[in-house]
C-alpha cells in the first residue's frame, strides 16, 4: 500500500450526476471533492480570482495590494465583499468596553480606531465589544459595521465632566469588563483620567501599539517606551490601530442598570463649545483654508471671497514673498502644514514644497489655468479657468444667496 | 477688596524631549503665567528632592518653591498632604492648584493632577487656556472661577467652577511670562519633609526600552489621479460647481434662506 487515497472513478462520476432522468447527465466541470478541492484532496488555488481580489480600485494602472504588513491595504484586502451576514456573539467569555467621543453623535475616525482596537482584544479572548455611548445619539447605525457587538446607551451628562465620569464608572461597575478603551482625544483623555482617578486603577495613556498580548506607549518625554500586557484602562493614540474592516457585527442593545445620581454633581458647569472665528484662527488648526497663489492679483477681492466662504486665508510662498499676504498665512514646507478638512487653492500650481503643506488635507479644490498642474492632479474638483474671473462669480453667488 | 488668591503650581523636573537635558515643562510655565494673570500669590510645589532645573521656573516669576523630600515615592499623597497641611501660606488655606498637561521625563501619563484632585476632593478642569475670577459673588458663597477650555480646531468652551479647585493648563494658553535670569539666580528652594508615613504603594513594574518610531496609518488616501475637472467653464458655472462641492463636503454652511 502506498498510503495514497485510492480513487474510485465510478463513484466520482456518479457524484457528478445532475438531475434524474431517462438519460444520465453529468457536470464534468465541477471538481470531485466540491468547490475548490482538487482531485488530490488539497485546496486548489485560483490565481485569477486572487489577482482580482488584490486589485485596488481606482487608478488607470492596475495596482495590487499584496499583503504589505499591517496597513490599510491589508485591511481592505481582508474584507473583499460587503458581507450581509451579521456576526453574533451570544455568550461572550468577557467584555471589552469602548467609550468613543461621538462628536455630533457620530463615530469619528479615532472612535472607529478605538472600536477596531477593542475588536482585537475581544477576538483574542472570544469576548464581545460593548460600545458605551450617550442616550439620544441618532446616528449610531454604523456601530455594527464599526465592530460593536453590544450597544450600551446611558444618559451621559454633557455639561458636567465630573458627573459624566461618575456615570461611566457606574456603568463599568455594572458591566465589569476586562478592558476599557478610550480615544486619546481631548474629551476622551479627560474622561479616561477621571475614571482612572475615581476607580484608583492604573491607566495606560496614549497607547501606540496594541495587540492581544502587549501594549506599548511612549514615556520619558518620548525617549523611552513602556511595554506591558494590555491593561484594564487605556487610551489609544490617533492613527495607530486600523479600524475594524470585517463582517458586520450585531450591535445588540444592552440594558445597563440606571446608575445612581452622582453625589458631587454641579461643581463644574461647562457650556457648549464655541467655534473659533475662522478669520483669526491659526492656520495649523483651521478646518477650511482658502489660499491665493500667483494667479491672484486682486487681494481685496480674495479677502472678501474668503470672508464669504467663512474660511481661513492662506497663501503660497510667492505671494508672501511679494508682501501681498502676511508670512503667517504661508502654506507649505517653510510655512504651515495644514490639518484641514478642505483646501481651496486659487491660482496655485502646486510646487512640491507647497503640496507638503497639504499633508493631511482630505479634500482639495483647485482653480487654475493649467490643466497639467500638480494641484489639479491632487484636487477632487478642478476648475481650469482664471482665478481672477472665478472669484467675483463666487462672491456674487454667495451674496445672492445671503440676500 | 478681594484678597489675592492663594495658588499652588505643581512643578516637575522635566527633560527636553530632543536633547534629553533637564528643562522646564512648557505647560507648567503657562500655569505660572495663568496664576499671575489671576493676580494670585503662588508657591511652587515639587514632590522630590530639590533639582537645579526647578530654578528655571523661578525665572518665570515663581519666587517661592517648596520641594517635598522623599515625596517621589508617593507623589499624590505627598502633594495632597502638603496642600491640605496649611504650611504653604501663612494667610490661609490653598484655594487653587495649577498643573501642566503632562510631565515630560517621567511616566508622562497626565494622571497626577486628576489623582491629586480626587485625593483632595476638589473639582478638576483640564485644558484651560484662560481664566478669570467670576464677577458677581454673593456674600458667604465660595468664589467662582470662569475658565475657558481649549478644544480641537481652535474652539473654546466656557466653564465655571467653584473654588477650591484643580486646573490643568493647555499648551495654547497665551500667558507665557518673561524669563528673568536674575530671578532664577536668586530663587531659594525650600525643602520640607513630605510627611508620609507607612510604606509607599507598590507600583507594578513595566518593561522600559528605547523608543522606536513607528509609522502612523495613512488616514485619508490622497487622490493621486485627480477628480472632476471642468475645463474652461463660464465663471458663473464654475462658482456654482465650487459652492455645491463645498456644501457636499460640509465645510460651507447651507444658504441662509433654506
UniProtKB/TrEMBL annotation, chain A:
Biased segments, Basic and acidic residues type: 1-15
Protein keywords: Electron transport, Transport
Positions of region (Disordered): 1-47
Pfam family, one: ETF
Keyword Transport: yes
GO molecular function: electron transfer activity; flavin adenine dinucleotide binding
InterPro entries: DHS-like_NAD/FAD-binding_dom, ETF_a/b_N, ETF_a/FixB, ETF_asu_C, Rossmann-like_a/b/a_fold
The keyword Phosphoprotein is assigned to this record: no
One Gene Ontology term from the biological process aspect of the record: fatty acid beta-oxidation using acyl-CoA dehydrogenase
Family: Belongs to the ETF alpha-subunit/FixB family.
Descriptive protein name: Electron transfer flavoprotein subunit alpha/FixB family protein
Species the sequence originates in: Gluconacetobacter johannae
Lineage: Bacteria, Pseudomonadati, Pseudomonadota, Alphaproteobacteria, Acetobacterales
